[in-house]
Amino acid sequence: MPAPVKTTLKPAARPIVKTAATAKPASFVKFSDKLTDSITDITKIIEQNKEMIDSIQEIAIELTSSIGSLHTLTVKYARIANQILDVLLPILKNLPVVPKNVMALLVNLESITQKIIDNETSTAKTITDVRSGLNTGDVNKIRGHADQLKNVTQSISAMLPK
What we know:
It contains six helices and no strands. By secondary structure, it is mainly α. The chain has a domain at 51-159. The radius of gyration is 38 Å and the shape is rod-shaped.
């Protein structure tokens, strides 16, 4: 039996035409790679500053607790002072021996103690919510009270002698 004959056919030469489907895609940066790189960078920054972040949180918790204690103490003595002034002021107003500047000072003191008492509930709530947010890591509880804390600070600052 004779060996089969192999025939080799050369394909006809075709011109190379690049279409949108066959063209090599242009080089581009993938969004997912960019986001992954950003997240990796953020993670590294947080890890590098972990001790500082945790220390700031711990200090904020302690400061909030201290302010809460000072607030409780201030309200306690403001109530006592206010009760005394409620009794004394009407009597002292009728005494001609009390100098006007002393009367003005006592009236001012009564006004300050009353402001402290009037703001007790909202200030206590703000302090409690901020402390809770710091303890639980709830940023929304903390963020929601930044303006209220500024108001508390401004109120206290306004009462301080100049």
